[in-house]
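Weekly modeling sync, notes
Attendees: AB, CL, MP (scribe)

Item 1: holo prediction request
CL wants a bound-state model with flavin-adenine dinucleotide before deciding which constructs to order. AB pointed out that an apo prediction alone won't tell us much about the pocket. Agreed to run with the ligand included and paste results into these notes for async review.

Input as submitted:
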Amino acid sequence: MGKKIIVAGAGHSGLTTAGQLAKAGFDVTVYERHSKEDLGYDWYDAVNPNVFQVVGCPHPQEVGIPWKWRQDITYFGPNTADEHKVVQKFRKPEDIEIIMERKDIYRLLIGFAEGNGVKMEYGVTIRGPILAGDRVVGISTDKGDVYADLVIDAAGMNSVVRTKLPDCLHIQKDVLKNERIFTYRAFYDLPVKREDVTDRYKVMFRPDPCEDFSLSWITTQDTYTDLLIGHMEPPSDEEIDDIAAWYRKTNPQLGPHRLRGGQTVPIPFRRPLSILVADGYAAIGDSAFMTMPLNCSGISTSIEVSKILADAIIADKTETFSAETLWPYQYNFYRKIGNSLAPISLVKDLIISIDHQQTDYAFDTGIITWRELSITADQHSIWKFLHFDPRLPKRGLTLAKDRDMLMKAVGTVADTAAFLAWTRTMPKTYSRAAVQRWAKGYDKIFTHRLRKMFPTYSFDQPENATKEERTVTL
Ligand SMILES: Cc1cc2nc3c(=O)[nH]c(=O)nc-3n(C[C@H](O)[C@H](O)[C@H](O)COP(=O)(O)OP(=O)(O)OC[C@H]3O[C@@H](n4cnc5c(N)ncnc54)[C@H](O)[C@@H]3O)c2cc1C
């Protein structure tokens, strides 16, 4: 023990992994570009309250950090008239999330990390990995180079550690257009009485007039209204103002004065990375695209996954932290979470590839029901979709009346079946050739229909890191 570990990024995944490893006796330092005060965003998040105990972190209640239960969600397609809504129902109390201010989640997780001996280095911008051959041996930062026995990449979707890894590792760098969503979020004044608002947590698919897929929510809290607008391309300030004004016509709870927030942030909207480890390197959280590909929540999953990663590192008695000895992390992640999380991305592609009319049709005719939508309560299992329903034949016949949607749905079912079969072939032990072969097959299942499903998208250009950024010599 005592080996040196660098954690790149003080997000939820980085802090929880760091805390567990420091507790186990490793010398762990977290490097973060922001100051402690500027970490995170000025809004609240929904989290599964059970994940804290998984990693040994106290529940917020135990340390006097505020939290409250999340309210139920009402879902709408593009037609947001009252009779078109689908109301979420929870069957089990453990399906209900809590909401916490993001700054408070950080307070909790930093307390956990520091309490276990993690060293925090704020205000350090990481420029990329330092490599010895194709082993990651450290990070290059604006404050100088730092070396370690292992680098944990928890630096978010556009992590410069991941995007600057050598190509021979076959760890995917770029995300395609259908694989991320840009979300604007802000709190506005609440000009009406909260009690007069019927649906206080409205989630809407394709609600605004833009042709491409969009996702929004309007949530009424005690003293303000929370607006989220998700688009496939970053919306401009003018577009945001226009869309908010447009919502105001039918949502009097959304006042004109912005009180908090106002950032637009990209979130992974896709399957997890097909290869999570290399010699001296492991990716976690948004850097490994571990968000739930329908509602883009990633906090609870990244905390849960941090336990799987920490366990694998602690179990590596060779302390070489090679791809081979870190492989149990990937294997166990997919076995416990990834195998049921990843295929939700196929469903997401189906949803974003159908148009406004088709989305309304699916809502109005019962093709989509509250059971499927309950997956957005931070669940990460495809099995929420694949449940027995006596009305399935009727729903199938209704679907068959729209040939385009039927063909897309058939493709989704076929790809899900192919995924479930392929994932069973994941190598149990690491060999670079076998792992890269498996990863190629995995990625192909998610990408082979894209040109047909999204004829107007360009899939030839990488979408995030610029070429200039990636060709920096380290
Ligand atoms: C509008 C919005 C609402 C959301 N709501 C929810 C929700 O309600 N529930 C939920 O579960 N999830 C939600 N999410 C998703 C959630 O925020 C992420 O999945 C989660 O934060 C991922 O944690 P992470 O630790 O992997 O990455 P991050 O939280 O992104 O942390 C990465 C860290 O790395 C740092 N970093 C990046 N690059 C560098 C660099 N070069 N040098 C130094 N530091 C660097 C960043 O500053 C950051 O602190 C939401 C996301 C958005 C955008």
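Recorded for review: The CA atoms of residues 203 and 217 lie 4 Å apart.
Action items: CL to compare against the apo run; MP to circulate these notes.
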